[in-house]
Amino acid sequence: MAIRCVASRKTLAGLKETSSRLLGFRGIQTFTLPDLPYDYGALEPAISGEIMQIHHQKHHQAYVTNYNNALEQLDQAVNKGDASTVVKLQSAIKFNGGGHVNHSIFWKNLAPVHEGGGEPPKGSLGSAIDTHFGSLEGLVIKMSAEGAAVQGSGWVWLGLDKELKKLVVDTTANQDPLVTKGGSLVPLVGIDVWEHAYYLQYKNVRPEYLKNVWKVINWKYASEVYEKECN
Amino acid sequence: MAASSAVTANYVLKPPPFELDALEPHMSKQTLEFHWGKHHRAYVDNLKKQVLGTELEGKPLEHIIHSTYNNGDLLPAFNNAAQAWNHEFFWESMKPGGGGKPSGELLALLERDFTSYEKFYEEFNAAAATQFGAGWAWLAYANDKLKVVKTPNAVNPLVLGSFPLLTIDVWEHAYYLDFQQNRRPDYIKTFMTNLVSWEAVSARLETAKAASSSSS
After folding, report:
1. Residue contact A152–B181, C-beta within 8 A
2. Model's pTM, two decimal places?
3. How do strand A154-161 and strand A185-192 relate by DSSP bridges?
């Protein structure tokens, strides 16, 4: 039974698109850059096609590449019992793994206008937003203000606290995923406020980017996540 | 009692020691118009607003930086104060026709503390390239030694107890227009090859040595 399990995991590992080195009986799962569910130019004029292409092909790809490298090094260090190296790799894993996690969510948080981008949330998420923030406008104002106030690089989030069953707005630094602010936090909408997310188009005027990004926020996806977590 | 105009005059947006187009093609006029004209200006203007009516009003910039650093538990004015300082220091770290290798005592000390200029370059380059997110890389002086330091966001060696000698800004706004497609490594190389003012670094080293010998 045990041998069959190992064999099928090896087979699955071999079928993965990216290289997956097998050390011992475990194969580490590595990652690939997810495709965008829309063309680079589809979010214009809110976010330029130029930004979308560089953001996806350069920034997110770099996080994926560096995350995979860190995971391979981690795997080797774990197998050798090299505790110092394992600990040393944690920041690279946090930066790059976090970058991959956050950007994967971000692409789903955005949608072209003709596919519902910007359409206000209905259903249970819409009501929850009204309950917690007074109105969608109230939420937008709060998130935009907090996003503008992030010093340096980071993200602003609308999250669901699964335990307390309430919506929260929070920010994270660098590529820290929302879960680093609380184990029960589920990201619903994340907005990247690293300069690379807006600089080519909005230059230093981050508030202008934050004003416009709401026109392409995919509330349908956020509602799906919310409803799934609430049931 | 200082009039409010005299107070706000403490925090000034000094122009760089060169024309905004003087660093072309290595750092464009457009970048300087935004980086100095918008970003740096905003730090100065916002700092003035932030300290107005508080106990920090009228205090020297370095005093504000130290007290708002608050041992790492940053107080609200730290970001604007430190960034105002950092950017003025950054412009003065560059000059048209700059870059290349230093000479004289500075070179001797770099060779002493890093074994060679090339090793120093490697370390400085690595610090600048691997500072994750926004931040700065520095050559600093402390305890009669030169060292390379990297700092996040607005933090600078002043609050870490050393004398800054040289810096490169690695916030994305510093290179995003000129080195498109996220080419921070090319920006660092261009800075080291074409922009560093070793005269400024040497002058700061002299000041740092004099200050540390007078306090010992």
Report:
1. no
2. 0.91
3. antiparallel
